[in-house]
Amino acid sequence: MLLSDQQRQDIEQLRGDGQQTRRATVAALEEMLYEPLPVLDHGFIRVVDYMGDDAAVVQAARVSYGRGTRRISEDRGLLRYLMRHRHTTPFEMCEIKYHVKLPVFVARQWIRHRTANVNEYSARYSILDREFYIPEPAQLAAQSRSNRQGRGDVLEGEEAVRVLDILREDAARNYADYQEMLNEDDEGNVIDPGRAGLARELARMNLPLNIYTQWYWKTDLHNLMHFLSLRADAHAQYEIRVYAEAMMDTVRAWVPLTAEAFEDYRLGGCQLSRAALDVVKRLLAGEEVAVESSDLSPREWRELMALLGR
Amino acid sequence: MLLSDQQRQDIEQLRGDGQQTRRATVAALEEMLYEPLPVLDHGFIRVVDYMGDDAAVVQAARVSYGRGTRRISEDRGLLRYLMRHRHTTPFEMCEIKYHVKLPVFVARQWIRHRTANVNEYSARYSILDREFYIPEPAQLAAQSRSNRQGRGDVLEGEEAVRVLDILREDAARNYADYQEMLNEDDEGNVIDPGRAGLARELARMNLPLNIYTQWYWKTDLHNLMHFLSLRADAHAQYEIRVYAEAMMDTVRAWVPLTAEAFEDYRLGGCQLSRAALDVVKRLLAGEEVAVESSDLSPREWRELMALLGR
Amino acid sequence: MLLSDQQRQDIEQLRGDGQQTRRATVAALEEMLYEPLPVLDHGFIRVVDYMGDDAAVVQAARVSYGRGTRRISEDRGLLRYLMRHRHTTPFEMCEIKYHVKLPVFVARQWIRHRTANVNEYSARYSILDREFYIPEPAQLAAQSRSNRQGRGDVLEGEEAVRVLDILREDAARNYADYQEMLNEDDEGNVIDPGRAGLARELARMNLPLNIYTQWYWKTDLHNLMHFLSLRADAHAQYEIRVYAEAMMDTVRAWVPLTAEAFEDYRLGGCQLSRAALDVVKRLLAGEEVAVESSDLSPREWRELMALLGR
Amino acid sequence: MLLSDQQRQDIEQLRGDGQQTRRATVAALEEMLYEPLPVLDHGFIRVVDYMGDDAAVVQAARVSYGRGTRRISEDRGLLRYLMRHRHTTPFEMCEIKYHVKLPVFVARQWIRHRTANVNEYSARYSILDREFYIPEPAQLAAQSRSNRQGRGDVLEGEEAVRVLDILREDAARNYADYQEMLNEDDEGNVIDPGRAGLARELARMNLPLNIYTQWYWKTDLHNLMHFLSLRADAHAQYEIRVYAEAMMDTVRAWVPLTAEAFEDYRLGGCQLSRAALDVVKRLLAGEEVAVESSDLSPREWRELMALLGR
Questions:
Q1: Shared-domain flag, residues D178 and D236
Q2: In a domain, A162, yes or no
Q3: Fewer CB atoms < 10 Å away: N or C end of chain D?
Q4: Which chain A residue shows the shortest CA-CA distance from C87?
Q5: Model confidence pTM above 0.90
Q6: What is the C-alpha separation between A32 and B95, in angstroms, rounded?
Q7: Would residue A153 count as lying in a domain?
Q8: The dihedral of CA C294, C295, C301, C303: what is its sign?
Q9: Which of D89, D270, D300 shows the shortest C-beta gap to B272?
Q10: What does each C-alpha distance from B224 to A52, B221, B263, D88 come to in angstroms?
């Protein structure tokens, strides 16, 4: 990720603009505001606005006239209670807005989360930059043999080199052909005055899915945690997980008590099925239980044993 | 609407808390922040938080690194363009949170707008205050004869007195019976130590629909304008329209350029059907057109003539 | 719940109308179609339309051209996999529409589920019937002492009689006053030709929250299960739980494999926090663990021990 | 669009399966059911399920026990009234499900409509087919000079040939490289047993945006009309407009009275701003009005004059 001088200057100007406000304000998040956190080779997330704090969740839960908070220990207890009992609406009272730069194939997964507001850079209207995601060698994983949507071992040696060469060359050529069809060079000058240039909304179809796009993405704290619980999970594709992890850092700065409860009850917790709970009870009662005498499939059995550390 | 000393003190404390922020800040809305704007006899709306300003809409439409704004005239032009062409997503980038006190029958209409976040005071958990909406005499309208969901002339004399007496007496008795069932008086003391008191979640069912409730209600600027276009409209019931009008004042303070465009293109504009447009064209061409030679129903014809001031 | 002759006749007519269709059809649900299932004293739910079946979930998960199903055991396995791993979108491909008659205070809880389509009987436009929810004596619970939003022991003797009398008398009087203000009797005749009658949209405010309303409510299978997981839960208020349980019966008829997976993984399962999982592991390892040596609060500890049957 | 023998056979089997149902059924839509309607060079839409009909809208608006319909002229009048006055919730009571095959860059626009249920073919899990959108020569438009997101004249001669060659060649090479990285040929056989093959979730990033994907897409009639009002509009990109037009055909077959009202009041109608309405009134009063004496911008003036046919 490299910012142009103009972009760096725009960000510095925003960061310098101190204003007085009566709104709830979080010093740790103010510190991060507008500043891009790098993700992948050219991507980033940056917080561009936020509304509310831990106390705003408490305030809404109590429908109070004032800040709603009492002692910090009481607030923490209430937030944990809300998280534990799935009282989700108070968490919807906080809102955050990100500017995200990300490869198109990641954007396609991300946009499936519908409870958010989005404004994406328009390739109908504007010309996309020549920036493509090329994985680090350590991320060049083979197809998993056991999991159709998972990764196996990392490719090595010549095969890795070959893949990286393909990705780089195809991206370069497709982008060059994009410019050729648009009849515009890097500086936005017409290449050949004798030609008209294809419409932007058509030329873009030649670009590969690893090209970077960007958007403003805004959501509330409850829906953000739902997004993070799915995308910061080990089953999520690496290329979106790294975005979720960077966002998790901003959540810890923004609403530390909520973030702690989220990590204790959601990220670090687990779901047991009726049959899995039954196995746990029988084990605790000292019974010998095997997969055959449980109601679990072999795969569920393995998952449960791994979870219980047996 | 009367605030208790504690409530007034809580609000003053919040209003006094000046903080530094790097976020977009609107002085005119800061001025209003936390302060209740009275609506009906005991209700209010008050802005308790907000995110973004006119420039934030522009910033999102441009997916820009900085504030995104240029000259104010350019911003105004872009906002009007977005409003005119129904490009609604940039307006979703601003968010506002209200604390609202309102009669339950108004709350039941209001909640039909689903794209918002809500936390309501819980009568399962807490005891509701003895506050009921009793209309001003000028609002005691008879049933309309022509419109099944409209109001006709104002009731006068004895009939008006009778209605107000009924509303006041039934509310008073139902509330007294609510307390009797709860076995709790105004100060929260047990009335009769020999009784248990009915569960709150049951006792509340005796309260009439004009009792006041309150909630935190948060939505984005696009969905707020959609709400206002329906609820600030002349066809909306008076008791919700007055809330919409108070909210419209806060929108004008918050995002003046957007509010102006909204009033020009949405509130003050109109929708013409294919057949109505055809009538307008024929009239402009100097043709005599009557309802019989149009494709309009008599009702649509009357509405069109009223709209055109003929 | 008592249907009028006209209503019974309307329902019979719909039930008699056999049509040919190429759509997925579920015999067990066709059997229930249009027929009201009684809930509470005057309420009901009835299925008025549906789209899809278990196979439609499989079909969407596979994005297939045909039915998408293979052997029933494979379909069952896939549905359980989707349920276990929170792949929720295929379940959104089935849709169901209910006609529900329910007390207003129940409707106010229900409507908080926003991901549904609703058309409610309008008391602005029409006059509500004289039907009120009066609890069975067995449901007249005292306020719980330990849980602010829960019920304790059942009221007995005179106190119960007193509560039922209040509920009945206040409902009767408020309804009589409603008619008085409307100036309309049970047959819809004008009571006093010398008076105008208050507008319906105003008169309704005198009605108590236990009056019955009705609506058409339509949602998809995923959101329905989310509703049921919250409202068929032991913590839900009894008066909404009985609706959820009746709906659960329709789900079992409609999508039996999905219903089974839902009951195994969601309704009958549980969520363990990070700290609770740690306690389980230590117990399984033979360690003595007490609340003091755990990271759980006393309340969480009690809940965990109850869950584990210790 | 070419179906494989297996796909054709799957569709025929579904079309042959006649079942009895008590649900609302629409013969004209049954006729279309499952059958793909071709769009673009390899795409299609096909209706795979539906719920409700014109009468179901009426039924929900009346919250009725039976079909809710009276004479067809009354139903038509009610549907037109609902459409005219933006009473949108009854239209949400009908639901339709499509299977759509479409280029990825079209899918990226389409998915921005959030109020729908979607299951997309997963390129993390499966391998995409070698099918790319290549425009008809008549669609090879130059960039518009006046509208940054519009099309100008059609490219001709050598320039058109050059563009088509680029699109075809880049697609072919990127797909060949995709297979090379996957180490799998057209038949799914391993190309080189000495190599592992890159994970599918990574290899897909090399594919260009004109590759076809497919999804199940389900929405309600109100949201479908909102989609169509934006995407069947002349300002929409041609490649999505043709999908909207094919869907419009299915709407006409499904709910003819609603479709007629939609075309009269929404598609064929227009929105006038406050200032435009003022110009119309002054013109009708016989006044000479020019852009300078109006409150319209030159662009709005031109649009208004075009609308009025002047």
A1: no
A2: no
A3: C
A4: A230
A5: yes
A6: 21
A7: no
A8: negative
A9: D270
A10: 19, 5, 13, 17
Please tell me whether residue C43 adopts helix, strand or coil conformation: strand
**Could you give the residue numbers annotated as active site of D?**
231
Query: Does one domain contain both B44 and B66?
Result: yes
Please answer whether residues B155 and B140 qualify as being in contact, where contact means their C-beta atoms are separated by less than 8 angstroms.
yes
Binary contact (B135, C163; C-beta < 8 A): no
In a domain, A233, yes or no: yes
Q: Indicate if B15 and B61 belong to the same structural domain.
A: yes
Q: Do D14 and C218 touch (CB under 8 A)?
A: no
Cβ-nearest to A283 among C267, C277, C284: C284
- Same domain for B278 and B249, yes or no, is no
Taking an 8 Å cut-off on Cβ atoms, the answer to whether C21 and D7 are in contact is: no
Tell whether D39 and D109 lie within a shared domain: yes
| ipTM of the complex as predicted | 0.94
Is residue D118 located within the same domain as residue D249?
Answer: yes
Residue A284 lies in a domain: yes
The distance of C130 to chain D (nearest Cα, Å) reads 17
* C287, C237: one domain: no
Chain A interface includes C190 (CB < 8 A): no
The Cα C304–Cα B307 span in angstroms is 67
- Dihedrals phi, psi of C37, to nearest 5 degrees: -100, 115
pLDDT by residue for chain B (310 residues), tens only, comes to 578 999 999 999 999 878 999 999 999 999 999 999 999 999 999 999 999 999 999 999 999 888 766 677 889 999 999 999 999 999 999 999 999 999 999 999 999 999 999 999 999 999 999 999 999 999 999 998 888 778 999 998 899 999 999 999 999 999 999 999 999 999 989 999 999 999 999 999 999 999 999 999 999 999 999 999 999 998 899 999 999 999 999 999 999 999 999 999 999 999 999 999 999 999 999 999 999 999 999 989 999 999 998 8
The two structure tokens encoding residue D113: 């409509």
Q: How many domains does chain A have?
A: 2
Domain of residue C164 covers: 134-209
- CA-closest candidate to residue A219, choices C79, B220, B265, D305: B220
C54 and C200 in a single domain? The answer is no
B touches which chains (3+ CB pairs under 8 A)?
A, C, D
Q: Minimal Cα distance from B271: which residue of D? A: D271
Measured CA to CA, the distance from residue B170 to residue D53 in angstroms comes to: 44
User: Of D170, D192, D208, which residue constitutes the final position of a domain?
Assistant: D208
Name which of D21, D56, D99 is nearest C19 (Cβ-Cβ): D21
CA distance A273 to chain C (A): 4
A121 touches chain B (CB under 8 A): yes
Active site residue A231: yes
Neighbours of chain D (3+ CB pairs under 8 A): A, B, C
